[in-house]
Amino acid sequence: YFVAGYLGLTSAMCWCLMLNGFIGFQWAEDGTAASLWTFRLSSLVIFGVMYFVSIATFTSLGAFTKAHPIGLFIVYFIFNPFCLLVYVVLQIILVVNTLDEYWPLGNICFALVFFIIGQVIQIFLSNQICEGIKHYVDGVFFGTICTLLAVMMVYKYWDSITKEDLEFSVGGKSNVWEVKELLHEDDEFAPYAGQAANTVGHAGVSFANTGSVYGGQGYPQQQQYQQQSQQPHYQQQAYPPY
Predict the structure, then answer these.
(1) Under a CB-based contact definition with an 8 Å cutoff, are residues 196 and 242 in contact?
(2) Contact 16, 84 (CB under 8 A)
(3) Please, are residues 14 and 75 in contact by the beta-carbon 8 Å criterion?
(4) Fewer CB in 10 Å around end: N or C, the chain?
């Protein structure tokens, strides 16, 4: 059952990666409910199909048999590589037709090379490695390392074509420093608002739009400033001064 779960997750991951390759062609807006639920439901279906085929093959259920695991081999050795190949082709088309530079193609090529090397070591050279290292490790160890490198290069490719810095983003919360309300003239930090909004004027700063507190030359009007300083402030704003 653990092996069947592993095979199901592998097929679901390959399918999900292939669907992710179509996102760049705007078949659905990235992050919307339609795209997310398409990923979730279709990946769940692929996982269920692969899990059933694996269990049926291991237990010789119906037409499936352990002596001739044709269905299992078709899904694992044909369907999964087909999904990965489609993803690579889609990304090459996307980079050539959309981006101004071709450097991300190097990341995709490295990912493909690492993945192929890992599969060759794991499938064809595992016995030789196991006997040569006195049965301490086999080809699965080196194949897993190469697969990890391939995944890292796929992430590096995604990071190179994405302008937004989402590496450390957790959740969908907006910026905590985003100001939700406009500052009024009577607010305590209203005099500082003009310093961030205007950057042209005397000494590099213009306060022409700050209302009655500052004049057009960038200097406070003394009388109005004294009148406002004498008025009590009953509300404190939590906005940091700019």
Answers:
(1) yes
(2) no
(3) no
(4) N
